[in-house]
Amino acid sequence: MKFWVTALIVMMSMHVYAQHVVSGNVTDQRGNTLVGANVYLQNTGIADAADIDGNFTLQKVPADQYTLVVSFVGYSTYREQIEVDGDLDLDIALQENVIKGEEVMVYATRAGDKTPTTYTNMSSEEIEDRNLGQDLPFILKYTPSMVVNSDAGNGVGYTGIRIRGSDATRINVTVNGIPINDSESHGVFWVNMPDFSSSVNNVQVQRGVGTSTNGAAAFGATINLQTDMPAQEAFAQVDNSIGSYNTRKHTVEVNTGLINNRWAFQGRLSQIASDGYIDRAESDLKSYYLSGGYYGDKTTVKAVTFAGHEVTYQSWYGTPGAKLFGDEEDLDEVIAMGGEYSTQEQIDNLKNADRRFNYYLYDREVDDYQQSHYQLHLSHTFSQTFNVSGALHYTRGLGYFEQYKYDEDYADYGLENVTIGDSTLESSDMILRRWLDNHFYGATFSANYQSGPLALTIGGGYNYYDGDHFGEIIWSQYARDTDIRERYYDNYGRKSDFNLFAKATYDLTDRLSVFGDLQVRTIDYTTKGVDNDQRPIDTGGDFVFFNPKFGGTFELNERSELYASYAVGNREPVRNDFVDASNGQTPTHETLHNLEAGYRMQTATSSLSANIYWMDYENQLVLTGALNDVGSGIRANVPNSYRLGVELAGGVQVLEKLEVGGNLTLSRNKIDEFTEVVYDYAYEDDRYVVENTYSDTDISFSPNVIATATATWHPVNGLSFQYLAKHVGQQYLDNTGNDDRSIAAYTVHDVVIGYERSAWGLKRIGLTLMINNLYGKEYSANGYTWGYLYEGSLYQQNNYYPQATRNFLLGLSLKF
């Protein structure tokens, strides 16, 4: 209701202008018409697409000055300042893009107009509108079926993402076709790539299995990022943002433009800092991006390097539900039964804090990690029908997280007790550092052929991971006769990953195209040494997966089409599944059968997509509450589970200066049969196991409803107002479907106000105000649950990650 009231106020306040027509024709430099070229007046929503004769018409244009933008794939974007004080008729000739090698870098792993899968594209302009310092997931959060969360509560630091209920370990992420997912955990840690959004040209999010790509299996979605392309002209840009919780971002970027129409270089330095919404959840993030390349008529060579260094105070523990929703008695039960609060300082911290509670108190309870990426790309066009591309890559990661541990037993660290005089001490407070030291490198390639009705791509890649895990005791309350930084555990992981795919689209008729995509992927994983719980580990596995995909598209008319596809994906277990397996019984791999069917429509003033998806899992891995011999949680395969849903997305220009849009996901996410494991600790010698079986239960973190509504108003040239609302339905913290273990549904409203123009000799002055959570909603977007029995009585604790209430970011951008 608040959304529509605000939208009504916006519409009522619109001004009336004299209106004119801007029309014209779009061709290439040889006079060939460019059918479908996009023509629009920047920051107005007034747009059209060139028809079969290359003609376009922009209706009802108020008198004013505008930036006219014309774009077409394979051609340089045309921009011209025009003044409308009457009807205009223009002839526009686009130049072929000398940097089309950039497109080749991601072509092999992306979906196109005739690819029968479900996807969303986001342009650099859309990214720039919201890029004020928050991580990339928060910029993407309004795309369909997406739910994001932040440990610190305000989108800076550690952030998470789920698409169709699948978390980051099931989402394949690539940058210029190079894998980004961690080889062992399969996760993506956006905090290691601070301000990467400032160097992203465009993003494609494929939902479901999607098309074949490099790296980790796409079990919920694929996020394909393409970095910035060379600018036609040189520029320098300075971006600064400030906001709530002492959040600030400083970015400096330089771009040479095309030098002699052949060379281009770009660089960026960024710093982001924030105190965070959660107590002590500070972030200190630094990053850089550099690229340089040669752009010949047929050959492109480009080097890219980017790196990030993050120091974040840990806010991983969450806030007990008793603190958010309970009373003093509930808190006392947490203290008495949970076992986490052993000192008076910890108890006082819990009782005196508000919803921004942070469990950690030690001033260096931080995560300190640096990751550097290096990419070298080569593409060559042999003819109008055939081109190839290849890339080499290397990623270096090194860092640790530091922990203060209370009253730890020496025996748990493989250490002898300490004797002081006549006393023997069996435990001590300690400070630990747990390190990751890893290398990831490999190569990718593709060969692309397109002639007549056939488009064929053959591609793949080989990647190798070499990572060390070790822990150090850097301080102990009671000194021992040991070396400084003595390692109390040390192990390594080695993983090779090879994939080869062939995908083709063939036009059977002018309107009907068929698609096929076959991929073979092999994995060899080994981990060996001593784990942090002092267990020797020597495990791993070899896997060979065949992932077929096929489907078709049918063009209803020039603006709309139907599509359908069927795809199979396979996914190996993650590191913890191997290491924590009880008695060495590693779970089996997972398989996903994915059916997508939908409709897409695009006109000059409206767009609509509608699709239905069926994601049928075999042996999906889920947490059951089961523990191994040392108390680590282990995942188990559930034979049958599925996700069935409908996704709707679209937008329309309802008035000359007002656009509305949104998306809606309705879904069922079920496990056919699930067995929960609960332990009764009243038995000293052995844990008594209680098993509870559930049928047709909901998959955790999978809301049945996700919805977004947006309205964008351009009252005058250069000024825009965006109103955005996001609704996420109830989510369960585990797979029991128990309402007492869930995250309540929430709706959050955001406002973005932007103004830009050229003045004072600057190419661009941009001012952006973003108000997040406009109505101050208190909500949580993530959490976890755990519990146990004692003499048959259940103790269950939910921990949540509260998100920030009303907060703002204000940005100033200057382009020289």
UniProtKB/TrEMBL annotation:
In its UniProt record, a GO molecular function of this protein is:
siderophore uptake transmembrane transporter activity
TonB-dependent receptor-like beta-barrel domain location is 330-774
According to the lineage, what is the superkingdom? Bacteria
Q: Name one GO cellular component term.
A: cell outer membrane
Compartments (UniProt record):
Cell outer membrane
Q: Quick one: signal sequence residues?
A: 1-18
Q: How does it sit in the membrane?
A: Multi-pass membrane protein
Recite the UniProt keywords alphabetically: Cell outer membrane, Ion transport, Iron, Iron transport, Membrane, Receptor, Signal, TonB box, Transmembrane, Transmembrane beta strand, Transport
Query: Which InterPro entries does this entry report, sorted A to Z?
Result: Beta-barrel_TonB, Beta-barrel_TonB_sf, CarboxyPept-like_regulatory, Plug_dom, Plug_dom_sf, TonB-dep_rcpt-like
Q: Which residues form the TonB-dependent receptor plug domain?
A: 114-221
Q: Which family does it belong to?
A: Belongs to the TonB-dependent receptor family.
Protein name, entry field: Iron complex outermembrane receptor protein
What species does this protein belong to? Marinoscillum furvescens DSM 4134
